[in-house]
Specification:
The chain is mostly helical. It is 78% helix and 0% strand. Helix 4 packs parallel to helix 6. The chain has six helices and no strands. The longest helix has 27 residues. 30% of the residues are buried.
């Protein structure tokens, strides 16, 4: 295996963890199964950091990685949030806000690339959002409810704030959309 393949393999691995994670939470509704799911989610989350770090360090950033890495992150986190609703550990309205923001920002990214080739890089509020989402999921699955809930609301705040920040910074693409004044 060539080292330039490792970041993409980590991304694919993260995607492959998702059905295992879902299966464990579906067939076992016990603290033990939640802990196993938390460990699987944590390992998958670490690959999110590791694949990007290695791709930049080795200068092997690829189009596949640019596409698959953010998609894998969203699939992993959205799957986990949906499962937390099923388990009664997360309010559906917050998960709906998070999923809507993710879809809106993904659409914005596509629009920016299409209209001018601009790539919307992750800003610090978006990174805090991802970090707090992932840790909220882990702590909730570990039944550390207070820490998990606090992080969940931190994630909600940064979900909304970072979405606003991305759209505010990219408002020029909508100029003239609703008439001129």
């Amino acid at each position: 295996m060539k080292k330039e393949q490792i970041p993409n393999l980590l991304t694919i691995g993260r995607i492959l963890f998702i059905p295992i994670f879902i299966f464990i939470l579906t067939v076992g509704n016990s603290i033990e199964s939640h802990i196993v799911a938390a460990i699987i989610f944590a390992v998958a989350s670490i690959t999110d950091y590791l694949d990007g770090y290695l791709a930049r360090k080795w200068n092997v950033v690829s189009n596949f990685g640019k596409f698959a890495d953010p998609m894998a992150d969203k699939l992993l986190v959205m799957s986990a949030f949906i499962m937390l609703i099923e388990l009664g550990m997360a309010p559906a309205w917050i998960v709906a806000v998070i999923i809507c923001r993710e879809l809106a920002v993904t659409g914005l990214r596509l629009l920016l690339v299409e209209t001018g080739g601009t790539v919307l890089a992750a800003a610090m509020p978006g990174k805090i959002k991802t970090f707090s989402q992932m840790f909220a999921i882990i702590f909730l699955l570990l039944h550390w409810t207070l820490i998990g809930q606090v992080l969940f609301y931190v994630a909600l705040f940064f979900t909304i704030y970072s979405g606003y920040d991305y759209f505010k910074g990219s408002a020029y693409v909508f100029k003239g959309t609703f008439g001129s004044k």
